[in-house]
């Protein structure tokens, strides 16, 4: 099997928290994507019988057309990778992942006469425990048996894929998704002992947004998760320095006053004199320890807690600057300046707008991280935001699968190499 | 009970893949300090710390409770701080099949609990199975009734002659028979498929289950590789990795 073969039959899979991105190298710059979720229809319902559904779980673009009543949607619509980690015995979640994997590969069944199976590189969260690797391999075995589409499979951590896609052999990747944030130093391979995971992500910014809406008299809206997320994205700002930003927003009330009209409804959210609270939303992602948040915790808002999954402890309240420093300082001293010299931000939770009219007090994620590190005495920092964060991991998978020699066999010690499914 | 000890035990069992169980519905006398579940297996844990040992009646109560729990879960453990470990004899626990965990900086399993079969649970499982079967029958009956109702509703608007009516009834009963047979066949097929998936040996012999791979025109990137592959230093790093085993043919 030659390089020419890999140029046709390398396949990438990114099991993201919200989307599953997949496809062969021949797609070029962008993969195909579907939501990483599955729907278990109610087999006893008349609709199920009338529509002639024979599948236990439905995934893919057509999923919304199968959704039934709202009441039991939460128990039937499963997002298996909401936090990057799937419980070992969460059968429904694993069933969805199996279906999604099969869906992805079957979508690219049209192949040449020289086809002997894809070289598949799958990417998982850097904090995924070993049993997740084992399950993913088992799922690929099943899919291959059913379809004959897989020659060999390998699994890599998502931050490594991001570093590869950005052509950065030495860097720190900060991947912040819906449920958590991973800080992963990389020097030709992830330095596993230095990975720091935070039990904080986009969902925590949703929580403080919800609390702000509640305080502003929008209790009903505060309960609607999807609406809260949209409001967060529309009004949230990252402050350069929180106290200064709040002072300025209170002093110059008109400038920072924010209203948000919910599309397709008559509802308009007006934060009025509390418009300064929009800075709390951005700050909370970077530093929930600020005393401004204490009053919210005292009133019952859930404090991000330390949590242990497998070998990894997810820190709840650690500020992001502190976490980066702790991660870097676990690496050899000689390497540390090179790591600070290339920090790559990836994941939806770090894609924040910094409107130019607020440039005196509001910044983007890269600048905020720079400020946090500078305050702690770190110099020579270069932070970049992934231009197309949605596709970085898939692209990294393609490069990895394309370049990794086919004779490099998987070992559990190194957690790398190919697993030949036809051996 | 010391919060730190509880936390360590939770971390230990969570790392093993267990999930913490909610104990709200359990009777007070049978309630352990902590309980975990993985698949069908449940584990109860009672913590015996210095405070418990100091209070004689509380200590005895806890021990008796621990023994009683053996009847309602698969494995029972007592968790003991290291400081007490030397003064507590494991023999008595071993005799009753109770395991022991020592809590220091980490959690150590010094005595494996004996796994039991739960008679009561098995009875319950049998009852559940019977109820489930009955429910399935009922579900099918309701579904048939629904279909029948829809059909009758439609028939109200159609004028039919008596002989045609009889023919329709006959056809309908035949269709129903056919549907029942088809459902049985589909179930059987699903069962066979499940069995086949789990058998690697059969995999090599039976290949009829595979979806067809269609031969089409592949779009090979002509000359230019995607931007992320061009001048990527990782290509050299990754391609220099070498294994010891045979090349994939």
Question: Would you kindly provide a written description of the structure presented here, covering whatever features stand out?
Answer:
The complex is a heterodimer of chains A (423) and B (249). Chain A is an alpha/beta fold and 423 residues long. Chain A folds into 2 domains: 3-37 and 79-166 and 389-420, 2-Layer Sandwich (Nucleotidyltransferase, domain 5); 198-385, Nucleotidyltransferase, domain 5, CATH 3.30.420. Chain A has helices spanning 3-9, 46-50, 73-76, 91-106, 130-147, 158-165, 202-215, 219-222, 225-235, 242-251, 253-256, 278-286, 294-298, 320-328, 336-340, 365-375, 389-403; strands at 10-15, 19-24, 32-35, 38-39, 77-78, 118-124, 150-157, 170-176, 181-187, 196-198, 238-239, 259-261, 268-270, 307-309, 312-315, 343-346, 362-363, 383-385, 419-420. In chain A, the strands form 5 sheets. Chain A has a 7-stranded mixed β-sheet, sandwiched between helices. Chain A has a 6-stranded mixed β-sheet with strand order 3-2-1-6-7-19, sandwiched between helices. In chain A, strands 4-5 form a two-stranded antiparallel sheet. The longest helix of chain A has 18 residues, at 130-147. Chain A starts with a helix and ends with a strand. In chain B, strands 1-2-3-4-5-6 form a 6-stranded mixed β-sheet, sandwiched between helices. Chain B contains 9 helices and 6 strands. Chain B has 249 residues and is α/β, with parallel strands linked by helices. Chain B has helices at residues 3-15, 50-54, 56-69, 82-85, 90-95, 119-155, 162-197, 200-205, 233-239, and strands at 19-20, 34-38, 41-47, 75-81, 99-103, 107-111. In chain B, strand 5 (99-103) and strand 6 (107-111) form a beta hairpin. Chains A and B meet through helix 5, helix 6 and helix 17 of A and helix 1, helix 6 and helix 9 of B.
